[in-house]
Amino acid sequence: MVSIKDLPENEYVLEGNAACPGCPITIALRTMLKALGKDTIITVPASCSAVIQSLYPKTSFAVPTLNIAFEAAAASASGIEAALHAQGKDDITVLAWAGDGGSYDIGLQALSGALERGTNFIYVCYNNQMYSNTGVQRSGATPYGAWTTTTWTGKKEKQKNLAEIVMAHDIPYVATASIAYPTDLYRKAKKAKEIKGPKYMEIIAPCPPGWRFDMSKTVEMARLAVETGAWLMYEFENGKLTFNGPSKGIIDGSREPKPVEDWLRMQGRFKNITDDDLKEIKKELKERWEFYRKKSQLF
Predict the structure, then answer these.
(1) Is 1 contained in some domain?
(2) Separation CA 219–CA 27 (nearest Å)
(3) Is residue 2 in some structural domain?
(4) Which residue segment(s) compose the domain that 179 sits in?
(5) Which among 47, 57, 55, 1 is positioned nearest to 25, based on CA atoms?
(6) What pLDDT is recorded for position 298?
(7) Which of 15-19, 71-75, 100-104, 275-279 has the lowest mean pLDDT?
């Protein structure tokens, strides 16, 4: 396992970008690009990342970057990969870098198509559980009970599980990660780079303005999501499911998760949840963990 001090010093997310203070997206992309290196082409749909790059004609991403329509990140990645292959340039990594709005909802059809075609690329969904860039509207990834500008009394539907949908496409590699565990994220990105075919990674990305917490608490929020079991870290590789970090201890029973209330109370988006809402959130988490415990026993 690589240590934090051994990560490459090269930086591909530069100073002067337009990210909000405490933004998790730049933390995640900075780590990803350290793993993937300079021979990477990024395609970005409409999202926070399209703004973070800074304003035309300058950019803060030190690799070739294509800005594409909201629904087309995976489709454009397929085109880039096909063009590179036609030129014999099979040593360049194609990275689709999208939020949950452009992955769970608007971009799902293109993602499914690219996976089914076997496109040799890495698709990353940085999941901040809402449409942050357009004003904090609910997405398919928004959890039950969360406030957004379109669920101002709290969302009443369960969140979608995109990683499970992706697994059903029988691709070589699926992984989840957290910005609070950068060496785990780095290792998974390095692994994905060496695997041929479609790879999917999903990173929990707590958003200070959207989740309503202090900008200094971003990493703490991402860590607590894992420690409470609100976010799972795992890998699904060639049909084998393995868990990482605190999630491994929770799944095998050697580690007791922290109370989910510790995570919820730090976020203003959950300040109005009722006792019944809390019971529903706990019930959903319990069901999710039981599902994965049973699933892990199958492999």
Answers:
(1) no
(2) 9
(3) no
(4) 10-296
(5) 47
(6) 59
(7) 15-19
Whether residue 3 lies inside any domain: the answer is no
Length of the chain: 299
What's the CA gap between 119 and 113, in Å, rounded?
9
HEC-encoded secondary structure of the chain? CCCHHHCCCCCCECCCCCCCCCCHHHHHHHHHHHHHCCCEEEEECCCHHHHHCCCCCCCCECCCEEECCCCCHHHHHHHHHHHHHHCCCCCCEEEEEEECHHHHHCCHHHHHHHHHHCCCCEEEEEECCCECCCCCECCCCCCCCCCECCECCCCCCCCCCHHHHHHCCCCCEEEEEECCCHHHHHHHHHHHHHCCCCEEEEEECCCHHHHCCCHHHHHHHHHHHHHCCCCCCEEEECCEEEECHHHHHHHHCCCCCCCHHHHHCCCHHHCCCCHHHHHHHHHHHHHHHHHHHHHHCCC
Q: What tens digit of pLDDT does each residue of 30-69 get? A: 999 999 999 999 999 999 999 999 877 888 999 999 999 9
Cα separation, 113 vs 14, whole angstroms? 33
CATH code for the domain in which residue 121 is found:
3.40.50.970
Residue 73: inside a domain: yes
Total count of domains within the chain: 1
Question: pTM score, two decimals?
Answer: 0.96
Long-range pairs for 161-170 at CB < 8 Å and ≥24 separation?
162/100, 162/103, 162/104, 162/108, 162/125, 162/202, 163/200, 163/202, 163/236, 165/108, 165/112, 166/111, 166/115, 166/200, 167/236, 169/112, 169/115, 169/116, 169/198
Tell me, what amino acid is at 164?
E
